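Suppose you are handed a protein chain with no further information: no name, no annotation, nothing but its sequence. What can you learn? This example shows the usual starting point.
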Amino acid sequence: MKRNRRAALTALTIAALMTLAPALGLLDKADWTVSDAWYQDPLLFDGDIVLVGIDQRAIEEIGPYDEWSREIVAMAIEFLNESEDCRPAAICLDVLYTGVSTPEADARLAEAAGACGNVVTGGVAQFDDGFTEREDGMFYQDRFAIRLFEEPFDAMKEAAVTGHVNAMLDTDGILRHHLLSITLPDGREIPSMALAAAEKYQAFYGLEPVERPPVDGNGFWYVPFSGGPEDLWESISVADLLAGEVPADYFAGKVVMIGPYAPGLQDSYFTSIDHAEAMYGVEYQANAIQALIRGDHRQEAADGPQLAVLFLLLVLSLAAFWQRPVAFSTAVWLLLAGGWLGLCKLLYDRGYVLHVLWVPVGVTILYAGCLAANYIRAALERRKITNTFQRYVAPEIVRELLKEGEALELGGTQVDIAVLFVDVRGFTTMSEALEPPQVVEILNRYLTLIADCILNHHGTLDKFVGDAAMAFWGAPLPQDDYVMLACRAAMDMVKGSEALSQELLARYGRTVSFGVGVHVGPAVVGNIGSPKRMDYTAIGDTVNTSARLEANAPGGTVYISRAVADSLEGRIRATSLGDTIKLKGKKDGFEILTLDEILDEIL
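A reasonable first move is to predict its three-dimensional structure. Written in structure tokens, the prediction is:
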């Protein structure tokens, strides 16, 4: 229970820390970038908006823009409003006409703008993010405090509706929001140019007033762009308009945008629909107008509920990823990350804007982290098992057994192996005369010697049975000269027991020795037992025969079969005992030999 509580607390802490990252804005820039790419999908403009650009060709034909007389724009307005039947719903001048120029030009522009009441002209607010004094005398920082509003000259202000043209970039330098209106220090509310134009369009057709989109605490709303740079397919040079190359009735009932449309006029921004190519200000205004006319509103969901959902999903992700199979974890990861992306798109189409990146990034980090942790944990567990198993089996055999899937299934294979049995002669008598701790110490010394001899010669230590042991060579990996390896292990046991016996004789006045039997032949080697409890062992007549040889071998003697002697002919010296010793279960004529010496060790 305590372990479960600790695991739950750890999961909650990890989820909380990962939720804190977006809460502190650490993912803002990346999230905005991905959200822009995911949400902003170009649509066709309805054809109700026409752009009349102050473009490069107009500058070349009329002259440098900063030298244009205001009469030029006055003539454009006069042409558009030349008759009641063809006048536009709104004419937006995305140009600042602050201050005075010449009386004649100003008067003509104001007169043209006021003639039909369909002109919207621009004003711009200057913000100061300094400190503002409250009524109680305290100061606070207001990033959107208006210090100055540049309005059109007086006559123009009276003749046309003023709309602010402030384009407010987000902190990453991208234009994705629109300031719907501003409130001046004198209490006047100034709509944006887009809002003023949309209202004139609705009034022109006798429609309901514009439904205002939801805004945040600073008056901004999220703009769903209908097109990117130069996607407004109805665009005309102001030079063509003044030349009369486009009939006036073409503009009837439409919103006409007149504004800079050339790189040198420095009125362009990178927007959420295209981070690579800048969009002219008139295009941005056209997108905002289009969204307002369509009633295409988007409301950005509050961060608080999204952070709560993120925290919950991260906790669930940890539960799903920790110590789980890779296939299951991957399926959950794809479901959460892909499902969130789909949910974001679905809700966006229904008017809500969610943070696209928060959940996919969070679950992906946990997915990768848990996979790594699970891998490390499995590797450590594997190493632990390997280290334990290596106490019984040679390392190269352990690696083979621990290959995925091989050591986990019941079954065996028939192979030729060399089998060794060894037993401690005289140990039972000694144990009766000594104290139990002394018996255990002596037994462990002998079993350690046996194990070292087997493993030093790359054998598989099958089992200990009391003071006896069984080992085999030739499986699970094929081994060169496996019969010789078994015989060398047997001889090392006999030689090693001699030195150990002398030590025990000096300490306890008693000694013991090994009886060893070695036989070679076919046997079934594999996992034998039940699915819940199995042993990697060898079974068959070869194993039984080796056990019978050991049972009859005197202390300090290695008995081998004729099969062993024949396979090592010329490499060992052995003495045949003929069939003078009868092995249980064996017919007459089974030859037994004593292994006296391994010749290639002294050559």
